[in-house]
């Protein structure tokens, strides 16, 4: 039967969102034509800067001789702390982050001086010629040492519910232990870079690879003693940020700006990879001590955990990171009586910072480790113990921090994945394989994720946008979010095109610019598309409403009947091309551009009690991984991974699946091969890809099945979608626990392998030896 395509049907099915569209820069990316900061044509007279770095972890600067630097070929100027016109600080929250060392150095790699030269190479060569006399001081390097010395960058925090100690004492079964989970280098492909250009008067334009243009604006203004209105920061795109350019782009922006202000010339500061890794902070490593009580079936009745992170020498974002770790310790599990302590250990190392997940992964991995042990102690499949402890839908549904979970889909999501991944069949197959394979052991694990979406600092949950409709009917969008490859611009573009009923080609997004949208938050906490999508929608709606009113005024009909789709405006039985209506509206003096604003409703948080409603909603997911481990060498391979992720009503399934795949492999790298190693003098020795092993294409599983869970956000998020940027980073917990399962097979699953992360081959061999010794 043939159904006529009625205008109503056309209007109802036309959509700009919910469809798999390529990344708006995909073509430019593959052609090498996408402009990154270093690709912006340099102005005549541009100078290049490099930083002179500390070679000691903790020392007083007894003397500084920079004559050899000044006389090096091509050098134009050398600046130290006394040359900074304004405040010597680039810390995002607590102002304990010097741009240049002032009398004391607190880690190997801390910048002491800025060299400005006629070329990048000359600046770098000259920077090596500084002569520094240090009076060395004792250094603290690890979170364990920091904990023992009570050396913290912030007062420790705690979240208590019920009486965990009493419940623990009464519990019929107990697990106690420690765990160490290493940090991670962001390893964005494009390193840190800033290009500062002096403008008229005191003003300055800073082109910067940053997730947080407004913060760069503030830091540069303070460093130069200027007002915010003097400083314009622009970023078209980053070649990856992953949290590493939320606060840590500030040092580079400020240094380039200081050099530009002092020399009066454009100055570019591009970190080479080794310097970038030596200078900037990473994901926090965490050290945990835990005591958990459970009943005969494996239900947790008491949980006590004490976590200490390696914050590095200054606070940076360590406080909010620790807060998120505390708020993610529950993961998908109801914990009745719980006591969580978290401290940010002050160490003489890089100041650690945001990294995809922002403490969430570090919080959740601890409870997964504990559940894995409970299952082994009871001789049960870990999936059964996980399920038993899942949050309920109408009871057992309040988090330790007081938020009631109203959107729990973990039961159905895990049930679906259990089926589609053939979990039970493969569990039996793995056991059969291991029974006849003395050296190669297989392992299997299913791990769930629940991730709270919103900045855990409430006021950051706001965004703005600016939409211009030009007289030819083309549309230009600017919003406060930044593009780091995650596809925010594609999604925001889709939202605006959808609102105005236009093809995507009619809409273009421009560089993020502090002079267009003011007081923006970092593009972070996975909220970029949620917040900026809503703000852009708000702007587009205002324009659409004005156009609808104008259409009715000139063509008749009812405002509520005006439809925008297919590049046309439909009203009163007539269809007008969008651009024709726009032209007429312009002549009739209708405003064709608008700002838009959004603030996430219903959020509150009390940092003292660590209670409130910090998240707008939760995103869920789960993954199953199967590995094979060579128990003689510690080598392993991921054979198959199945991931199911809840992106709500996805704005763009192609981009979302890409985010899940990327986050999975990045998280797998964190938990397996990416090891940061500082020598006993506190020097990071793994400061290049030659010594720091990120996953390669050959590490991706041949059989990788990523799907989106069919769902709809219960919150009124942008088109009922859910955030996707960070939560899937927790899916490869399944890889780590599959490796632990394979190691456990060595001891007939009777011993809990003491496996820390990253599970490098050495760590795997160490755990196997421990299992063999105990078995
Ligand atoms: N994806 C790519 N390709 N590159 C990145 O740097 N950063 C991640 C995630 N996905 C990142 C990425 C991090 S840490 C966050 S917080 C989110 O993207 C930020 O973008 P969104 O909020 O728009 O999802
Ligand atoms: N994520 C990222 N950045 C942040 C957060 C967060 O939850 N809170 C404050 N800054
Ligand atoms: Mo992402 S760690 O919030 O930049």
Automatic annotation (TrEMBL):
<dbReference type="InterPro" id="IPR014309">
    <property type="entry name" value="Xanthine_DH_Mopterin-bd_su"/>
</dbReference>
<dbReference type="InterPro" id="IPR000674">
    <property type="entry name" value="Ald_Oxase/Xan_DH_a/b"/>
</dbReference>
<dbReference type="Pfam" id="PF01315">
    <property type="entry name" value="Ald_Xan_dh_C"/>
</dbReference>
<dbReference type="GO" id="GO:0005506">
    <property type="term" value="F:iron ion binding"/>
</dbReference>
<keyword id="KW-0479">Metal-binding</keyword>
<dbReference type="Pfam" id="PF02738">
    <property type="entry name" value="MoCoBD_1"/>
</dbReference>
<dbReference type="InterPro" id="IPR016208">
    <property type="entry name" value="Ald_Oxase/xanthine_DH-like"/>
</dbReference>
<keyword id="KW-0411">Iron-sulfur</keyword>
<protein>
    <submittedName>
        <fullName>Xanthine dehydrogenase molybdopterin binding subunit</fullName>
        <ecNumber>1.17.1.4</ecNumber>
    </submittedName>
</protein>
<dbReference type="GO" id="GO:0051537">
    <property type="term" value="F:2 iron, 2 sulfur cluster binding"/>
</dbReference>
<feature type="domain" description="Aldehyde oxidase/xanthine dehydrogenase a/b hammerhead">
    <location>
        <begin position="31"/>
        <end position="138"/>
    </location>
</feature>
<keyword id="KW-0408">Iron</keyword>
<comment type="similarity">
    <text>Belongs to the xanthine dehydrogenase family.</text>
</comment>
<dbReference type="InterPro" id="IPR046867">
    <property type="entry name" value="AldOxase/xan_DH_MoCoBD2"/>
</dbReference>
<dbReference type="GO" id="GO:0004854">
    <property type="term" value="F:xanthine dehydrogenase activity"/>
</dbReference>
<dbReference type="Pfam" id="PF20256">
    <property type="entry name" value="MoCoBD_2"/>
</dbReference>
<keyword id="KW-0001">2Fe-2S</keyword>
<dbReference type="InterPro" id="IPR036856">
    <property type="entry name" value="Ald_Oxase/Xan_DH_a/b_sf"/>
</dbReference>
<dbReference type="GO" id="GO:0030151">
    <property type="term" value="F:molybdenum ion binding"/>
</dbReference>
<dbReference type="InterPro" id="IPR037165">
    <property type="entry name" value="AldOxase/xan_DH_Mopterin-bd_sf"/>
</dbReference>
<keyword id="KW-0560">Oxidoreductase</keyword>
<dbReference type="InterPro" id="IPR008274">
    <property type="entry name" value="AldOxase/xan_DH_MoCoBD1"/>
</dbReference>
């Amino acid at each position: 039967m043939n159904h006529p395509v009625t205008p109503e049907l056309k209007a109802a099915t036309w959509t700009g969102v919910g469809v798999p569209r390529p990344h708006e820069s995909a073509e430019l990316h593959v052609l090498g034509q996408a402009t990154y900061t270093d690709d912006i044509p340099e102005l005549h007279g541009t100078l290049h800067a490099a930083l002179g770095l500390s070679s000691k972890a903790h020392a007083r600067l007894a003397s500084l001789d920079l004559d050899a630097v000044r006389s090096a070929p091509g050098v134009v100027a050398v600046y130290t702390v006394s040359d900074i016109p304004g405040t010597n600080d680039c810390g995002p929250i607590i102002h304990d982050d010097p741009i240049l060392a002032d009398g004391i150095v607190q880690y190997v790699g801390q910048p002491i001086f800025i060299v400005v030269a006629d070329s990048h190479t000359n600046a770098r060569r000259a920077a090596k010629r500084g002569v520094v006399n240090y009076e060395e001081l004792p250094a603290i390097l690890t979170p364990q040492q920091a904990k023992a010395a009570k050396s913290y960058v912030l007062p420790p925090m705690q979240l208590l519910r019920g009486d965990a100690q009493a419940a623990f004492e009464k519990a019929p079964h107990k697990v106690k232990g420690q765990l160490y989970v290493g940090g991670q280098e962001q390893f964005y492909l494009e390193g840190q870079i800033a290009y500062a250009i002096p403008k008229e008067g005191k003003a300055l334009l800073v082109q910067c690879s940053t997730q947080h243009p407004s913060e760069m604006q503030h830091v540069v203004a303070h460093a130069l003693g200027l007002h915010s209105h003097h400083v314009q920061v622009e970023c078209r795109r980053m070649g990856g940020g992953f949290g590493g350019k939320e606060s840590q782009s500030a040092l580079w922006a400020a240094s380039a700006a200081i050099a530009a202000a002092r020399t009066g010339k454009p100055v570019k500061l591009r970190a080479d990879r080794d310097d970038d890794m030596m200078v900037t902070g990473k994901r926090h490593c965490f050290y945990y001590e835990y005591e958990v009580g459970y009943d005969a079936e494996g239900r947790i009745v008491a949980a006590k955990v004490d976590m200490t992170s390696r914050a590095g020498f200054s606070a940076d974002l360590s406080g909010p990171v620790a807060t998120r770790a505390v708020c993610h310790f529950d993961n998908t599990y109801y914990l009745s009586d719980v006591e969580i302590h978290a401290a940010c250990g002050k160490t003489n190392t890089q100041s650690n910072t945001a990294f995809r997940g922002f403490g969430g992964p570090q919080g959740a991995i601890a409870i997964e480790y504990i559940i894995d042990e409970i299952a082994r102690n009871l001789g049960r499949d870990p999936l059964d113990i996980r399920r038993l402890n899942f949050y309920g839908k109408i009871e057992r549904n309040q988090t330790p921090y007081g938020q009631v979970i109203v959107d729990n889909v973990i039961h159905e999501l895990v049930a679906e994945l259990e089926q589609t991944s053939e979990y039970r069949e493969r569990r039996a197959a793995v056991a059969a394989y291991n029974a006849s394979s003395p050296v190669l052991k297989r392992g299997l694990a299913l791990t769930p994720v629940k991730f709270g979406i919103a900045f855990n600092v409430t006021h950051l949950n706001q965004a703005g946008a600016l939409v211009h409709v030009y007289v030819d009917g083309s549309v230009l969008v600017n919003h406060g979010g930044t593009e780091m490859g995650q596809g925010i611009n594609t999604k925001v573009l889709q939202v605006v095109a959808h609102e105005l009923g236009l093809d995507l080609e009619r809409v273009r997004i421009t560089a993020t610019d502090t002079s267009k949208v003011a007081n923006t938050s970092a593009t972070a906490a996975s909220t970029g598309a949620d917040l900026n999508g809503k703000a852009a929608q708000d702007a587009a709606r205002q324009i659409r409403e004005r156009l609808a009113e104008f259409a009715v005024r000139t063509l008749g009909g009812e405002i509520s009947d005006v439809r925008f789709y297919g590049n046309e405006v439909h009203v009163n039985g007539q269809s007008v091309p969008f651009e024709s209506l726009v032209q007429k509206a312009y002549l009739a003096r209708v405003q064709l551009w608008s700002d838009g604003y959004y603030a996430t409703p219903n959020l509150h948080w009390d940092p003292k009690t660590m209670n409130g409603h910090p998240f707008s909603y939760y995103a869920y997911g789960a993954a199953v991984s199967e590995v094979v481990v060579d128990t003689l060498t510690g080598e392993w391979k991921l054979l198959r991974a199945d991931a199911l992720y809840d992106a709500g009503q996805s704005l763009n399934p192609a981009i979302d699946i890409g985010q899940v795949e990327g986050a999975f492999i990045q998280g797998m790298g964190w938990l397996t091969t990416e090891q940061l190693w500082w020598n006993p003098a506190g020097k990071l020795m793994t400061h290049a890809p030659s010594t720091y092993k990120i996953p390669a294409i050959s590490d991706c599983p041949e059989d990788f099945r990523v799907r989106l869970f069919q769902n709809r956000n219960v919150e009124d998020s942008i088109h009922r979608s859910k955030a996707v940027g960070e939560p899937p980073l927790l899916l490869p917990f399944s890889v780590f626990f599959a490796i632990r399962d394979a190691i456990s097979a060595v001891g007939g699953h009777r011993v809990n392998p003491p496996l820390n992360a990253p599970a490098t081959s050495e760590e795997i061999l160490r755990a196997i030896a421990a299992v063999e010794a105990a078995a």
